[in-house]
Write a structure and sequence with these properties.
Blueprint lengths: L1 H32 L4 H10 L1 H29 L4 H19 L10 H18 L7 H12 L10 H17 L4 H20 L2 H16 L5 E2 L9 E5 L4 H7 L6 H8 L12 E5 L5 H17 L6
Antiparallel strand pairs: 1-2, 2-3
Helix pairs in contact: 1-3, 3-4, 4-5, 5-8, 6-7, 7-8, 9-12
């Protein structure tokens, strides 16, 4: 009985921490930094970098507190119904991942590392709850597919991560290895690849900046990501440029991807001329120049002003 009281107090404290962190993130982070337009939001972030970091940290604390509250409640409720208590924790884990995913982009260069972390979390929870680890990699893949806007646009490192998914699926079903050993081994094996990818990061960012500047030279185009660029994945708003062309073009919004494809450039989402993203990672300097010049050429051919 005394142990249950202690666990109940811990659950209550974790729940209180979750509420406090959530209120801070909402009242002092989002309401003070996030504005109705991207330019004001960007300026607020530049003026309050510490508040931004504190807000992201509070969101992470809230998400983890949510998960650990469920784990504490599981210890209290497993004697009543272990299966339902386990289900509660699994749903809480999924909710925590969804909350945390707001601060990560699964198409970024760190997506594979995030995927491994999610898998490690799922395998650890299934072991703690004495549930089968067979479905954990499968469920992880289903979550990523359903919560990603365009799973087909994931970066090339997901080929490596996909192989790791298959390895973990087979190893955890029949081998005597523990999930922790598999996860640590996979992380160690992927480290040289991750290290190699970040060695030329400044060059990759400069390439992203070059294409972004080319798009900004088209009157009416806006950048919704941070500027100057600090990442290869960029979100742009072309409602004032390419989307105006799409209104009267015979191909509508598909003209942009079609014209770029004629120039040997793929990856532009067909039909997207409003708000869309592009990633320049892995392109050579020559390819970057070609992409930037192609966007400008398409704009000029369709009567848009070049600044």
């Amino acid at each position: 009985m005394e142990a249950n009281r202690k666990t109940a107090r811990i659950a209550g404290l974790l729940f209180l921490l979750m509420v406090v962190a959530g209120l801070f993130a909402e009242l002092f982070f989002r309401q003070k930094l996030v504005a109705t337009d991207a330019a004001t939001t960007a300026q607020n972030i530049l003026n309050n970098p510490l508040l931004l970091r504190a807000g992201v940290l509070s969101d992470i604390v809230m998400s983890l507190s949510y998960l650990f509250t469920a784990l504490a409640l599981y210890r209290l409720l497993r004697s009543v119904d272990r299966d339902l208590a386990s289900l509660m924790v699994l749903f809480a884990a999924a909710g925590s991942v969804i909350l945390l995913s707001r601060h990560f982009d699964l198409r970024s260069d760190y997506a594979a590392i995030l995927l491994i972390g999610i898998l490690l979390l799922g395998l650890s929870l299934s072991t703690i709850l004495r549930q089968s680890t067979l479905l954990v990699p499968l469920l992880a893949g289903m979550m990523l597919k359903n919560f990603s806007e365009r799973p087909g646009a994931w970066p090339r490192q997901f080929g490596t991560a996909g192989g790791l998914l298959i390895l973990m699926l087979f190893v955890t079903t029949g081998a005597a290895w523990s999930p922790q050993v598999v996860a640590v081994g996979g992380m160690m094996a992927s480290f040289p690849h991750v290290k190699e990818r970040v060695q030329h990061w400044e060059t990759e960012v400069a390439h992203s900046q070059a294409v972004t500047d080319a798009l900004l030279s088209i009157e009416g185009t806006k950048v919704l990501s941070d500027y100057p660029r600090q990442h290869t994945l960029t979100r742009v708003d072309t409602r004032g440029s390419f989307d105006k062309v799409a209104e009267h073009h015979k191909k509508r919004g598909y003209f942009l991807s079609s014209d770029m494809k004629k120039r040997g450039i793929t990856g532009v989402i067909p039909g997207s001329t409003k708000v869309w993203k592009f990633n320049t990672f892995g392109l050579t300097a020559k390819q970057i120049r070609h992409v930037g010049e192609s966007f400008v050429e398409v704009a000029r051919e369709n009567g848009l002003n070049i600044i």
